[in-house]
Amino acid sequence: MNFVPDTLKPPRRTTLHEELTQRLRDLIIHGELQPGMKVPERDLCEAYDVSRTPLREALKVLASEGLVLLEPNRGARVTPITQEDMDEVFPVMGALEALAGELACRNITPAELEEIRRHHAEMLAHHQAGDLAGYYAANQKIHEGILGAARNPTLAAHYRALSARVQRARYVANTTPDRWKQAVEEHVQIMAHLTARDGAKLAATLRQHLENKLRAVSQSLAHQNGTAGKARP
């Protein structure tokens, strides 16, 4: 196997560990390194012009995030996406998102709100154009903006430790036009509550947003496993 990821250049040496970790994280989130796949360490070292040591240090970070499994004397393997894992992660992320929303409504500045509005407008434009990748990118910037406006580093650290597992799940879910439309409508509500500084309503909407996403992921997993009848209602 000659695995060469789409990359422009090797990571900058000044931030080698962080950049390498993020690039590997992105490969997993975007499905280029698929669930259950053995991580091709030699190919990645050649592609990114790094030695095995920084690559394995990056894999340790991803293992702590639940994205890879480190197998003694066998290297690393991308973790599978399971219903059990989704049932564990999504409620926690929903609680973190809800708290971030409450805090953001107290602490957000006009400049931060305006920036989130710009991302929201970009997201709507991507939806209109049917650009799912662009939609996801703008969507993530909105959630990161709310997290930043919360002004709580502890919350942010826990959120980011789980975020990649939730992001990866969306590439498993079958995003139907109806679900996509529903998600956009939820984001319209999110923006309305954030603009009004209504922390209680924003928290409830963010939590429901994650619950609806979990339902879509669960249905897709059930279908892929041939157990569609067991999908969540």
Question: How is this structure best described in words?
Answer:
The protein is mainly α and 233 residues long. It has two domains: 13-78, Arc Repressor Mutant, subunit A (Orthogonal Bundle), CATH 1.10.10; 83-230, Up-down Bundle (Four Helix Bundle (Hemerythrin (Met), subunit A)), CATH 1.20.120. The chain has helices at 16-29, 41-48, 52-64, 83-107, 110-129, 132-149, 153-170, 177-195, 199-224, and strands at residues 68-71, 75-78. Strands 1-2 form a two-stranded antiparallel ribbon. Helix 4 (83-107) packs across helix 7 and helix 8 runs antiparallel to helix 9 (199-224). This is Transcriptional regulator, GntR family. It holds the Pfam family FCD. Keywords: DNA-binding, Transcription, Transcription regulation. GO terms for molecular function: DNA binding; DNA-binding transcription factor activity.
